[in-house]
## 1
Amino acid sequence: MTTGDELKAAVSARRDLGPDFEDALVESFLDKVGQEVDRRVDERLAGAPRPKAPAKGSDGQRLALAIVSLSLGTLSTVALAFAGGGRAMALIPIWVGIIVVNVVFNSSREK
């Protein structure tokens, strides 16, 4: 039964039953209208595309990580170059660590 039919039936029942049952008829009608609204909303929500889960890292976070990584790596390289004394081998774990952090962060974002 459509909402219009429900309203016609409620008005007809009010005429038949009289004003003593008016409150009950109005409540019943409003309940049915509410159920119809709920049903329609549920249908629309079921047909709507689901939003994608937000990425773990935003573009701003990726850019910040890249800038900080390159800055720290460059400063470490310059500091070790000026320090001399065969400390250049310490650059390998520093740059490997920077690369690993960036790869892990960016691969977790794509999932």
Note: Residues 22-47 form the longest helix (26 residues).
## 2
Amino acid sequence: MKIDVVSIAKPEKDCYSQLCDHFIKMSKRYAQLEARDLFTAKVTKAQENGPVSAQKIYAELFGPWMERGYTVALDPRGEQMVSETFAQLFVNHSRTTFFIGGAYGHSKEFLQSCDRVVSLSKLTMSHKIAKVVLFEQIYRGLTILEGHPYHK
């Protein structure tokens, strides 16, 4: 199984990325999990022009990833689920790609083009925290499917 987490973010080596790396390493026994941070000068310029321009660039950058298996966008208005339900996202999918938008989130059109839209919480959190939560839930989901006691 292959799982990609693609986000509009500047690649950084900080405490958050270390936590993500920890869960990536822990997940390796169950799946190939990779993080992809996308950020270009176009993103910076588009974000200066506002939400519509920014969301268009985000969708453009995500474009090549849209054909890579089951697609899941993270959005505050998405479906909230318990960890056991989240784990089911990986059943019957050899490849799953998660999308974390930039400062302006995802456009309505982008969300409609994804197979699923999920919310990690009703709480507002920074992209870095959301990424850590997502990687932990991916690991948790994989252990649930394998019957590993981590979830308990």
Note: The radius of gyration is 15 Å.
